[in-house]
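DM from R.C. (forwarded with permission)

"hey, sorry to bug you on a friday — could you get me a structure for this? deadline for the figure draft is monday and I only need the backbone to look sensible"
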Amino acid sequence: MLGRRSLYWRMVLLVAGFCLCMIAVTDYAAQRVDSYLAHLPESTLRELRGYAADAASALDQGVDALNAWRDQHAELSPEILVVVDAALQALPGQPLSDEQRNMLTFLRSYTAPMSMRGGGRQVIYVPMQGRDESLVLRLPEPLTPWAVRPLLNALVLYLMPALLSLLFCALLYMLLISPLERLRRQANAMRANPLETLLPAELAGRRDELGELGRSLDYLTRRLRDSIGQQRQLLRDVSHELRTPLSRLRVAAESDLSQRELRERLEHEVDRMQELLDGTLEVAWLDSQPGQLQLEAVDLNALWEVLREDALFESGWAPERISAELPDDCRVQGHLNGLSQALENVLRNAIRHSPDNGLVQMRAQREGANWLLCLADQGPGVEEAQLEQIFRPFSRLNSARPGDGGFGLGLAIAERQIRLQGGRIWARNGHPGLQLWFSLRAV
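My reply, with the result:
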């Protein structure tokens, strides 16, 4: 669909404006040229007044002298026709042909605008100074103002449209080619791998197809930069976490432990490293998922009972220490395995950081089209400034929270699982303890 700010409409306006501008400018220039060429130049006017003065001198000597003067100029330029009185009637005694008499009906003043009629040869009258008579003559082509018309027409009809076309091309370049050149530089920057180079704000803010393309490229650049940053951080964290079990294995190998104790230590450290690698790979896999998971209706009461029994078995807690207040109709749209893993990780995290005889409780409440779930423990909580950091991989922020030395991957996996299901997870301090809130779409 063509939006209100589509590039198509900009192109339409640009082309239409260019055409209208060219027509208007060319028409205006042509009119100005015609107006300029319609009047005789001052040099020609002086020459014509000279002929009128000569004719007046001849007329002072009589009509015969005037006719003799006319005969002298018969083969010259301009063509002398006749002398007329104030009523523009030919004076008696001047021989005129029928063609010349017919020309007298199309007289115009020598200072009036000229016309292209009759091939451009104008029949004009020039008043004699101090007399009522006027000299009538026909201008030859060299004295007409149209001699330079072909050159001026070429300037108006060819050079001016060419200049306007250059302006149009410049506007077109600014509208299309310049943004595309910026996009090309952005793509080359991605190829050269300095992903810190982002799109200029003026291009990213465009509300047309080029702006959408620029924002998509900018989003891709940010995603690549974040992905590479996460991978590098993940490698640094994994290498850091692996140093501890490897160091313990080196110490055990150099110690005087018995074969049985050495084997137990080896099995323990291998299990820890396997747990670390499995969690790291799962976080990386969840980060690489392009979209949401396939969702289905999940009964949270049934799911909670399964997770609660497993947690009681693993922790050895008394049943009354893990409780829930879930309505009977608490059903959400979710991915069963992913939601189960997220809740299990959160529950294990709550148990791990609970004090002796601490309680863990799950409750739910309906809010519009979503269910809000809250899992609360009675541990020391987390500093307010670090509530968002607990969902980052390998985050172990508060040494005051007791635990068994996990790798800090459980909440990171839970956050990614919930996000892939179209939900949201966040943390609050419960005073005492930590509250982990979930928002999931209701069935």
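R.C.: lifesaver. The chain is about 55% helix and 15% strand.
me: no worries. Residues 42-143 form a domain with the Beta-Lactamase fold (CATH 3.30.450.170).
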